[in-house]
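[job 0412] stage=complex_fold ligand=zinc ion status=START
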Amino acid sequence: MEFQVIRKDGNARYGILRGTHGETETPCFMPVGTLGAVKGVTWDRIGQMGYSLVLSNVYHLYLRPGLEILQEAGGIHPFTGWKGLILTDSGGFQVFSLSKLMKITEDGIYFKSHIDGSEHFFSPEFVVEFEEKIGVDIGMVLDECTPYPATYEYAKHSMERTVRWALRSIRARTTDKTAIFAIVQGGVYNDLRLKCVEMLSELPFEGFAIGGLSVGEPKDEMYRITRLVASQLPEDKPRYLMGVGKPEDILEAVEAGVDMFDCVIPTRNARNGTLFTSRGKINIKAAKFKRDFSPVDPECDCYTCKNFSRAYLRHLYVSGEINAAILNTIHNLHFYGRLMKDIREAIKKGKFQEFKRNFLEKYSSQEGSG
Ligand SMILES: [Zn+2]
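[job 0412] stage=complex_fold status=DONE, emitting structure tokens
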């Protein structure tokens, strides 16, 4: 994997990340394809919307379809049919949030499947092996995601373990076809975060993620830690803020120097009827859209907005029609893709601050939150 920062505007960076299966401009947003598909849209549509990097997840792929089938298929690309770049989260976060966590030891994590209760074990070495064997472009290391709130002692302990596991992950590598990113932990404690950055930066990772945020902490804490960590990470490596977020959060983090994002918000919200527009979010279920024959967002040129009205989308949604999820997802992912494109253009022109101010002013001017 190669990464190049081409232009800086303040701390915001425009760059290009190249991997085995293509390249993406940064800052970028990765649609979430947990099970090897982005819910509600096919790969051709993902590609048409300009996305060339998607996120998947070791925890989920390991449970279903499992390593054997993925290997028999020749890897995750032939199995899923996606031609672009894939980054996999290790599943550490899912083990904490989804499965029944049994115990964490220095060796790794023992957990029960959320599907059938069967017992499993992840070590840092196994996660790297899995990511290499299925042929992802970027694999995240196994980390211990510090919950919020956590005491200083707890956060320190899990940060130090995350660093030890990162070192084991690097040692377990057998190929450079799969790039490995480390994850900075340390809760909301400045000194722990800085210590973690210092120790991880010495190791030969291709990129660094900021983990353990967007887990319930106040927004100003999230922004503070993001700014602190981003300012100390190596300049020449991509920086990825995991699980974030909302358009306003992405803008804050880009300003701090973050290059990569993922979040379930655009796809999950689409399935719940919440749509993003340049004037804020709307809830398509609302009765006020019953006779609203205008598009979701007059400024959007996605397939949904060019062809269908709010009234029609509301009708599909309240009738439980599967097209509601599809058309809403197309719009929301298009909105995020457009936001990232506009951010990149603004950085290239040295006008990121101006863009951010204008976007937020308009985005909060909304006809209401639906
Ligand atoms: Zn649209």
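The pocket of zinc ion is lined by residues 296-297, 300, 302, 304-305, 331, 334 (CB under 6 Å).
[job 0412] exit 0
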